[in-house]
Every structure is written in C-alpha cells, then in structure tokens.
Records
---
Amino acid sequence: MPKSKVFASFPEAVADIPDGSVIGFGGFAVVGMPINLYEALAKQGAKGLTCVSNGTRGGSTMPSDAPTMEGLIGNDQVAKVICSFTAPTRASQKLVFSEYYQKGLIEAELVPQGTLAERLRAAGAGIPAFYTPAAVGTELAEGRETRVFNGREYLLEEALPLDYAFIRAWQADSSGNLRFRRSQRNFNPLMAMAAKVTIVEVEEDFLPLGAIDPDDVHLPGIYVQRMVKVPPPPEGRWPQRPGEIAKQEAERSAR
Amino acid sequence: MSDGAKGLSRQQMCDRLAMEFEDGWVVNLGIGIPTLCSNFDFGDKQIIFHAENGVIGYGPLTGAGKEDLHLVNAGGQHVTLNPGAAIVHHADSFGLIRSGRIDVTVLGAYEVAENGDFANWKMAGQKGGGIGGAMDLAACAKHVFVAMEQVTRNGRPRLVERCAIPVTAKGVVNLVITNYGLFAITPDGMALREIAPGVSVDEVKATTGCNLLIPSEVPPVKSRS
C-alpha cells in the first residue's frame, strides 16, 4: 500500500519546501488559485523562490487581503517571477511587486500568456523547446533565435520545468485523480504536469477510489503527490462573490 | 461619451465592430472597451465567445448574487455559459488561438500605426508590462480589430505613422474604431471609412498622426446593420 497522498493541513504539506525552489501556481483571476497554499508558504518562509503564474495577483475580483504571490513578495521570499503580467492591469491597481521591481529587489521575466502555458506543457511533455509565432517582431524577441517555417517567422521558446506546483481542484479521489470545475482548470493541470511535486488544495471531500470514472479524470493522480482538503471558512480560504468583497473592502477602508 | 468627449460612446464604438462579426465566428474580446462588443444584439447570427482561460461559448455577465464562483471570462468577470459551451485548459486554449481558430480578436490599444503595427502592453518608460494573451491573439487571429479613443488624455493622436512604444505585433491590424470614426488598414495606408456624427473630416485629420486616405464622401458610422 503506497503512502497516502492526503495531508492533514496546509503547513504540513509545504513544510519541506527548500529555499531557491521554482514553484508554479495555478489559477486565473481568483478561480482555481491555490490561496490556502499561498498562505501556508508565506508562513513557512522559504526564500529565494522563483514563482511562476499568470500574474502576481488575481485581478480585481478578489479581496485585497487574499493571499497571493503578492504576499510572498512582500515577505521577501521571492527572487524572481515569471508571469504574463508584470505591471498592474489598471492604473489604479497598486502592486507590491511593482514596488520591489522598481527598486531592483526582484527579477521578472515577462512571457506572453500562451507561451507561458506552452512552456509548462512542453516541460510536462518531455519537449525541451518549441517555436511559436507569438512575440515575433516585438521587444521580447530581440537578440533571440527565430526560424522561418513555410515562409513565416517563429520564435524559439524553452520548456519551463518546475520543482513544485501549487494548484486548486474541485474533486479528488484518494489516488489524486482530479477534476476541475468550469474555468477553474486554466493553468492548473499544466503546472502539475511541469512539476516534480504537485500539491493540491481540494474543495470537496475526498472521493473513494473508482468514484471518478476514468473517462472523466481531468488530471491523472500520477501527477499528484500531496493533497489537502480546504476546510470551511473562516479556517479555509474560499473565493467570494463580488458583492461580499465590496462590502468587506468598504468596512476595511472605514476602519 | 460619458466623460463628455466628442463622437461615439464606447458602446456605439463596440456595436460598430460587432456588426462586422459573421455568423459562426469565434470571437475573443480583450479586457476593457472591447468587452462591450458582447452587449450587441446579434439577431440570428451565432457568435461563439472564447476567453483565454479556456471557456468556449460564454454568454452574458451574471447578475449580482448569481455568480458561479468557478466561472469567469478573461477579464475576471463572472459570466454565464451558453448551451453547447466547452472548457479546455490554458495550453489547449492558446493552441486553438495559434492554430488560427479565432476569427476575430478585438483589442484595446495605446497606438495603431498606418502599417498595421499596434502597441497595447507597455506604456512609454514603463518597467514591466501587461501582455496577457494579446501577443498570441494578435499574431494568430484571422482578423485583428482595435477599439480605442481617438486621442490620449493629453490630446495626442493614437493613430500614428509608426508606433513610438513597444509593439504587440507587426502589421496585423485590419480595422480600428475610435470615438471619431471607423478606419481600415489597407495596402496603401490608413483609410477613413466612416465618420462619427458631429465630427468633421478636418477634426479627424487634426487628431490623426498619419496620412489618411479619405473618400470624397465619408459616410456616417453605421448604427445598425
């Protein structure tokens, strides 16, 4: 009987993450974002991390105090980010990342979103590099290798392997077979496929083996090493409705 | 405009671009002004809206309190799904973008040049930037439409000879709507196709930073197809 993949708590699941790890975080806007794992890693305190994600925050549809990569940056845990956004999406948005980046305290690699997804997929598929038409002719392609196929120019991009993937899923069975709901899937399976160790926060109670039909598995358990069930609020972190967020933000600013 | 600027409102701008969508087209709308294209009444035309996060076939925004917290569009707004919708992961979502399955992408921009170059990911002198899916979409969609204001907040033209800030993609823009009119990028340069009510051709010329091909009679911007 192999060791159980189920961990009792988020701190236990991230306890051994060493300094200097390359960690990919799933999620797009707040959906599918591993907010409990972000929080646990901020408490765990590993430093010199390279963090890979679509952006350093989750867009406007999340509470200002929600744990994201921003918390790790403000905690001086991050050496470098690899993202498709390294600037606020709106002028009014203030990012901890921007403050650190302006001061030269953090490195950043800006990658087109589709290239980021494909670099992760390639790492998970045993492909070291590929050519893409995205970013050809832009500042991002300056000084880099391009090649013409069938009369069109393409840019060489390398796979992006990860030490760890932190992801969030809807359902899991005890072997780690996962299902995502609606747009929760986004980067989550790709982060897992690119990583040596995948840690999942799971929304629903763990299902027994065989409860998920093999045809319905979105990510096979062979990609998953550790899982934690997200406790109900307030102990566990859950996405909230925009109305609830607005109410909380108003209360916060009134204080 | 809600802010008192001249010409078309943002919704009117997006309505004009949406009239160009053909039955069965797969459409990707950038965040900001372009999202308003989905408010257009397409009548009998079937339009499939695709979002970068892998949602194919989303519908209108959800009402307050009715949000599905697992479902957002590319702008992070809670949306509904139309019958027949499908969901894929991010790599498949961009696989269908790069393989040419998006008929049109509508993007916002800081500048569009007369040669079809455009810039929308980095302002002058900015450290870092926000690309999101714009470079993949601009390089690979069958049509690239831009929706933006005619001039910057400081009154400088956004339609220019050459982009002064880093480009998102080169030579890809087909059609531009601003509050002043509809412009097409042609092999001969930038052409004024239609003009907003209340705006004169001289006003368009004075606020455009490149040569314009102007027909002797410029029709008004179509308000309904």
Note: The two ends of chain B are 22 Å apart (CA to CA).
---
Amino acid sequence: MNPLITALARLLIFPGLLFAVPAAWFFLWVERKAVARMQGRIGPPFMQPFYDFVKLLGKQTPPRSGAGGLLMRAWPLIAVASAAGAVGLLPVLPASGGFEGDLILLLALLELPSMCIIAAGFSSRSIFGEIGSAREAVLSVSYNIVFLLAIVSIAASQHTFRLEALAQLPASPLRWLGVLAILVCLPAKLHLNPFSLPNAEQEIYSGPMTEYAGPELAMWELSHGLEWVAATGLVATLAAPYLAVWWMAALVFVALSFVIVLMLSVVAAATARIQIDTTVRFYWQCTLIFAVLAISSALFMRLRS
Amino acid sequence: MNSGSCNGCDIELIASLTPRYDAEQLGVLLQGSPRHADILCITGPVTHNAAKAVKTVYDQVCGPKAVVAIGSCPASTNVFIDSRTLDGPLSRVIPVDVFVPGCPPSPSAIIAGVAKAASILAERAAQNPAPKTAPESATQPDATPATGEAHL
C-alpha cells in the first residue's frame, strides 16, 4: 500500500483521530463513573463527556487581546495536536507500514501537552493558574526522570528505539520492570490522585485551566482525553503480546487500555492528594531506585550478550 | 456563591453532591472557577459588601448562563427583611432564573432547581446562539473566591 495513505490512515482513522476521540470521551466517562461507583454514587450518564464537549463549544469565551491572548488561544490547540499525533504513532496494528516514528518522537509528543499546560497557566496571569503551572513544572521534573529511565531501560533491553520493532519483540522480564515503572508515573502524568496537584480543585480551583472557558476549555478536555488514550495505549502496546491478526491486535489493545484506565481510576478514588514535596520525594527517592535498577540491569545484560 | 448566608444552604448544596443525592447522575459537576460554570447558585440575602462580588462573579461566568437562588434569603431576604446592611433580594442585583425556596431547601429541591435551570439554559442557547466572545463589560479575572457554581 502507498506509505503516505497508510500513514494518513493511522493518524486519522486507527489508532488516530476517528478512534481516539470517541475513546478519549469513553475513558473520561470510565474514570468519572469508576470514581463515582467507588464513592457509592451512581455517576454521570454514558454520553456526558460528549455532551460537555458540545456544550462548551457553544459557549462564549472571555475577551482576550494582544500577544498573551493569542498565546492563550494557541496552547490548547497545540496540546490537542500533539496528543493526537502521539496516539497516531502507537504501533497497534502489526506491520502496517507508513510513517514509523520511534520512541523518542512519541515521548516528545506525549510531553508537549504538559508543556502547553505550564505555558497556559503562566500566560493566563491568574494567581491560581500560576500556582498550578509551577506545580505542574515541579511534577513533570520529578516523574519524567523515572519515566525516561524506564523507557530507556526498555529500549536498551530490546536493543531498539523503533516502536514497530519493540511491539514485535517478545517481552523480556526487564521490559516488565520498565512497564511497571511507567505505570507508576501515569497518575502524575494524567493529574490523577494522589498526584492531582496542578488541578487541585479544592485548593486552586482548576490550576492552569482556571481562566479558560468555552471552546478553549473544550480543547483542553479533549487533549486531556487524548493523553489518556496515548498514555494508556503506550503501556498497552508495550505489554501486549505480538499478534499477527490485525483485528485481534486492535481488540487486545483496546481491552488492555480499558483495564489500565479502570486501574488508574480505582487508585485515584482510593487515595487522597499528597503534598508536592512528598510527591517529589516519592519519585526521586522511592521510584528512582527502581528505575535505576531497571536501566542498570538492562545495560548489564546488554554488555554480557 | 455565598452572599452573606448563614451557611445552612451551603451545607445543603454540598449535601446534594454526596452519595445519597448524587447530582452527578444528571451530569452536574461542581466547578471552582466561574469561567467553567454555566449555572450560578447563590445563597444568602446579598449584603452590601457582597453585592459587588456577586456582580463580578456573574460577569465572569461566560454566556449562555443561568442563575439559581438557593433558599428564602436571596428570594425575599427572609428574616433579614428591611435590614439596612442589605442590597438584596438577589433579583435587584443580577437577573435570577430559578428560585428554590426553603430555609434551608432540601438537597433534592436544589437538584430539581438546577435541573430546571439547565433546561432554561438549553432553551436560551437554542433561541439565540451566543456571539463568539463575551461583551467587553465582562470584568477581568481576579482572585475573587467563588464557591458553589454548578456546571452541567
């Protein structure tokens, strides 16, 4: 098949936008519903994230002027674009060809939304936005060390940074250690309890998002949902066994993502928010040892072989 | 938003979000930022000092929007009637869409009021589609704490 068409199909259809946007709304609903069930409530109706999105599109936005206003409009769009690109890069279908990105590009695209959130909070010039952005920056410095070490350890143990090759190789025990380390980082990446510091609604309203309204807020919600799909999808593709049949690969991908979303929501409902210094200590002291162990054993194995 | 209430209605408002009443099953969420809210719930008889804050927060909510007056105080100033410290009732300060009477009203009455406001909101949005940006009169965001906005 024409590689350009395949690349476009991956970006726009599966696992790209046509799949990822409904999946994003579905995962947002699963999270809200799971938290509600854990608290003994009934929870929102199935279509609620979609209704919220449509409702936000129909609302007004506050007047913004100058370069600051332009930037405030741009951040959510950049965040959505990069999150959608990250989802499109996931090697879900076996040997589909087209544009094959590597792990480094995927990581950069996954990181871009959180950069946008930091910039958005500061450019909104609201005190809550600035506090939220500062917290997001600290959080991203603390979990990204572990996240990157885990990714590098996986790549080192499998001798490749290419996503397609990683998805096809049989998983080694070291890869599981890496996947576990990534899983520990996900609540911080998705701003879930116990690491929901940037958007701590009881303390700083919505943090960096406080000043956003209407369609811009809808774009933030969408980018958050796409981040869910991309982050859980990354773990799902790394953990899934290699399947040659495309529909089975897609099915396993969706099922694994769903299980991870459910797991994260249950953890979020069962825990309370911890302080920012405790969070940094958790990642730098407890989890870093784990990640260093993973990468050193990966490098050691590589030297021996 | 509390405009000088005795906190009775605010407690009932929180109770409507608890597992027993669970307003989220209708899709209602509590939003901290007025920018994210559609429905503004106001308690209290609107004291002289609170009136300006009520107007500010009302302007910060982006249209289409609806206002629910929770309890007897914002409707009629209740037992504080004729007090010289009041600017209320609420309808003198901002336009009100739904009144939920009671001292305090029960959580199920509050949820019914918010649901009615949501249907008013839907009609309003369908009748005149909102212009792209809010009018310039909307005040610049500041650090006014706002609690009790429901968002549907």
Note: The interface with chain B takes residues 32, 36, 39-45, 48, 51-52, 55, 58-64, 124, 126-128, 201-202, 205-206, 209-214, 217 of chain A (CB under 8 Å).
